[in-house]
Amino acid sequence: MTQVSAPAQGELLAGRYRLDSMVNGNELNGYYLWRGTDNLLSRDVSIELRIPGGEAAESMLSAAAHAGRIQHSNVAGVYDAINEGSRAFVVREWVEGRTLTEMLTSEGPLDSYRAAGLARTAAEAVAAIHSTGMRHGQLNPNTVLLNDSGELTFTHLQLSTTTPAERDIKAIGGLLYAALTGSWPLEASVTFRDLPEAVRVDGRLCTPRQIRAGIPAYLDALTMDLLDPGASQIDAATLAHELRRYDIADPELGPLSTISAEPAPQRAAWKKFGIPAAGIACILAAGLAVGAVGLPDISGSNYPLSADSASNGSGGKQELRPAAASILDPQGDGSELAGAARAIDRNPATMWQPDAYRRGDFGGIKSGMGIIVDLGKVAKVREVVVQLSAPGASLQLRGADTRAADINGYRAFGQPVRNSPAEVTFLLPRAENTRFLVVWITDMPRTASEDNPYQVGVREVRVYGA
Fold first, then answer.
1. CB 92 within 8 A of CB 76
2. How many whole angstroms separate alpha carbon 233 and alpha carbon 214?
3. Is pLDDT at 262 greater than 70 in this prediction?
4. CATH 3.30.200.20 spans which residues of the chain?
5. pLDDT tens digits, residue range 383-429?
6. What is the architecture of the domain spanning 12-93?
7. C-alpha to C-alpha distances, 67 to 52, 180, 240, 333, nearest whole angstrom
8. CATH 1.10.510.10 in the chain, residues?
9. Which band of pLDDT confidence, cut at 50, 70 and 90, is reported for residue 178?
10. Which CATH entry fits the domain spanning 98-298: 3.40.50.150, 1.10.10.10, 1.10.510.10, 1.20.120.520?
11. 177 near 197, Cβ under 8 Å?
């Protein structure tokens, strides 16, 4: 067999696929991943290359052949697979985006709604894979890509018929846990190690609600049931159906925040599948131990959580539905006033954002901009959750009983937040009577743009009563 050297930038495979930039590679095991170009069809592609080919590449090529049968919008498509003997390569759809690992590392955990949506989409994609008789086999935050709109795509499938289906279901539980906490809960036999290991107390995995306040009890229990090695697992299609029930099909129903903070006494929705919830004694013991070791607060709050908030979270409070939203831009020219309703439409995929500026302080042109949230009437407000498009902004929460034309007409609720996470929770020291709330942004993070590199969007503003 002819010895083939490591692939080089600009090299043409099969007279058609050009290697443009290497994503990663390991000369020791002969595995490389490249971004490339299909010169025939003028499209970006992902090229997985193994040296040598022949028998050493059979499993990779077999997985690619099976993946070609999977037709699902959340699974990267396979275009070509070639075994030249001295090397073999698989050409796939190139998907723009960041891995879930990169997103969690840079922005922190997701809110409960986005985490549940991610798990639901993952379950739907896994169901499509399982319908072909195959198993994913390599599902972890490094093989899940998310684009700017939050759409998910599976990559690097290690398809086989011998991997138990339960492994993929458990991995969905791992993705859900990671999305809620920013840590990875699965055992050491799983090779993924790019996120911090999940916290354990006396060998027992802490639940997401013990790590982070505001997670609904249903989602917390379902996550732990999926990870429980002794639980009877449901199939991916049924799991997707369970999670889909909490999408926002009806704006009046709302998302996961409409679920009570503690499971109702009657049978929980997933109990009909025979999945037991974690024992109360275990939760209490873990909670006491967690309190003793002092877990870090990763909730994004700029106030310490009260005992009541930490135990019940936003899911147990009354959510106040805004009646309307508008933009406060007293120093602007009126060109950035559209789209305010996107920040209260209960859809994190949409957002309001101002224009991009050459400096983070709105180019020095104005002191800030904000969204006015109108509750429709004066109400007692205790907590406001703001989801941003990126971390690194500076913002503050203000309020008033009547609408004002300038930010000084609204009183400050607490201290400003600087260099914020992507989700900021304003937990007020005491309930405030107000009708109008203003999320006032004074500084924006840098983006990848070169001309006007500073911009941030507001995806959602959630308001909770006392």
1. yes
2. 26
3. no
4. 12-93
5. 999 999 999 899 999 999 999 989 999 999 988 898 888 889 998 88
6. 2-Layer Sandwich (3.30)
7. 22, 29, 21, 53
8. 98-298
9. very high
10. 1.10.510.10
11. no
Superfamily of domain 319-465: Galactose-binding domain-like (2.60.120.260)
C-alpha 417: how far from its chain's center? Answer: 22
Global confidence as pTM: 0.51
CA distances to 10, 106, 297, 405, 461 from 111, in Å: 42, 15, 14, 32, 12
